[in-house]
């Protein structure tokens, strides 16, 4: 049976001041009317039922997540005591899935992506799941680039090795870190490179086998957690073991060195919505290119992303262009839209100043 694992533990610092520790990006209506997590789950219905849908988030967000998506069984919302990147997250989900279904095939999906064609998304995911069920290995989905993007990692697929559901399946040659702009332009001109979507398909047991082979420290911790599941020591074991797990990503900790790794190129509209600039790109916009949310008035302004959160003040933008303006009950952000990545530095500065009340 096919399971879905939704990774929902990120802190969303690039969406400050709307995104906070207790209400991060994935729980906010970024670029649309519903929270990103709710939209992610909506793409899976009715294809994968709630009882085979799993959400991994931070322990402190478990109550908020359960309240936001009550259709998901409470036991299927897994809390990480601390974040240990995506390899630990995926491994934690895998040991829990295998306790219920030793043959589990799973899709592993971030909670905070925007995807413009749900039918095409499901078609590609079905193809990937069918391929790994039949042939084994670990599979990732690569998005065909539409511009020289420096904010994404890239994939280099090898020759076509098989077909599944009308999709070409390639052996995966390598992952590439986020490039500079000249390299990104070259990738786009040459072709043969894909954006790394961070979406995966595999048998849970095969993922854990690769972890044992490549990341023995992570495997040891996950095996201790697996042995405790369903026992009185489960919560204590997770709390004790999880902080000691090594911090590494699925991409570079597991996929890059996997004995059998696949890639399916996909072409549906996709964004990881990594900044306010990216949110503006995917949000509904008026005739002047303004994306406005909440109590906002725009006069003679163009290309503005303006958000007033519930409880925030009325924002008026007049005679300005290409700005991000975000207001909450206790903070206001104003930044040029093309410099929206500076928001992460803002959060670091607030941390340094001890302004935990704003985080």
Topology summary:
Blueprint: E1 2-7, H1 36-44, E2 53-58, H2 62-68, E3 77-80, H3 85-100, E4 105-110, E5 114-115, H4 118-135, E6 138-143, E7 154-164, E8 167-176, H5 181-190, E9 194-203, H6 204-214, H7 216-228, H8 234-241, H9 250-255, E10 261-266, E11 270-271, H10 276-282, E12 291-293, E13 296-299, E14 305-308, E15 315-318, E16 323-327, E17 332-336, H11 342-352
Parallel strand pairs: 1-2, 1-4, 2-3, 6-10, 12-14, 13-15, 14-16
Antiparallel strand pairs: 4-9, 5-11, 6-9, 7-8, 7-9, 8-10, 16-17
Helix pairs in contact: 3-6, 3-7, 6-7, 7-8
Structural features, described:
The chain folds into 2 domains: 2-271, Alpha-Beta Complex (Spore Coat Polysaccharide Biosynthesis Protein SpsA, Chain A); 276-358, no CATH class. It is 32% helix and 26% strand. It contains 11 helices and 17 strands. By secondary structure, the protein is an alpha/beta fold. The strands form 4 sheets. Strands 6-9-7-8-10 form a 5-stranded mixed beta barrel. It has a 4-stranded mixed beta sheet with strand order 12-14-16-17, covered by helices on one side. It has a two-stranded antiparallel sheet with strand order 5-11. Helix 3 (85-100) crosses helix 6, helix 3 runs parallel beside helix 7 (216-228) and helix 6 crosses helix 7 (216-228). The protein has helices spanning 36-44, 62-68, 85-100, 118-135, 181-190, 204-214, 216-228, 234-241, 250-255, 276-282, 342-352, and strands at 2-7, 53-58, 77-80, 105-110, 114-115, 138-143, 154-164, 167-176, 194-203, 261-266, 270-271, 291-293, 296-299, 305-308, 315-318, 323-327, 332-336.
């Amino acid at each position: 049976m096919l399971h879905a694992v939704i990774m929902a533990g990120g802190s969303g610092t690039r969406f400050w001041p709307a995104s906070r520790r207790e209400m991060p990006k994935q729980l906010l209506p970024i670029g649309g009317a519903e929270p990103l997590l709710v939209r992610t789950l909506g793409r899976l219905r009715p294809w994968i039922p709630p009882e085979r849908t799993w959400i991994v988030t931070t322990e402190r967000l478990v109550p908020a997540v359960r309240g936001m998506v009550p259709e998901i069984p409470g036991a299927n919302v897994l809390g990480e005591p601390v974040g240990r990147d995506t390899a630990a997250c995926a491994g934690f989900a895998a040991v829990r899935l295998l306790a219920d279904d030793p043959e589990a095939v799973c899709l592993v999906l971030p909670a905070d992506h925007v995807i413009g064609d749900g039918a095409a998304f499901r078609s590609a995911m079905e193809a990937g799941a069918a391929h790994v069920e039949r042939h084994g290995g670990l599979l990732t989905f690569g998005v065909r680039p539409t511009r020289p993007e420096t904010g994404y990692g890239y994939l280099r697929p090898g020759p076509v090795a098989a077909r599944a559901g009308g999709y070409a399946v390639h052996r995966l040659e390598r992952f590439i870190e986020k490039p500079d702009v000249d390299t990104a332009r070259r990738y786009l001109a040459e072709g043969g490179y894909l954006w790394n979507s961070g979406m995966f398909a595999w048998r849970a047991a095969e993922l854990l086998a690769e972890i044992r082979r490549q990341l023995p420290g992570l495997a040891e911790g996950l095996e201790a957690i697996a042995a405790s599941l369903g026992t009185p020591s489960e919560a204590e074991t997770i709390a004790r073991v999880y902080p000691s797990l090594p911090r590494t990503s699925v991409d570079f900790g597991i996929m890059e060195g996997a004995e059998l790794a696949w890639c399916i190129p996909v072409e549906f509209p996709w964004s990881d919505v990594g900044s306010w600039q990216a949110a503006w790109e995917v949000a509904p916009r008026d005739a002047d290119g303004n994306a406005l949310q909440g109590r906002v008035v725009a006069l003679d302004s163009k290309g503005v992303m303006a958000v007033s959160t519930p409880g925030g003040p009325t924002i008026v933008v007049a005679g300005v262009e290409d700005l991000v303006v975000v207001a909450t009950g206790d903070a206001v952000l104003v930044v040029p839209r093309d410099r929206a990545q500076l928001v992460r530095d803002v959060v670091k500065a607030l941390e340094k100043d001890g302004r935990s009340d704003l985080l």
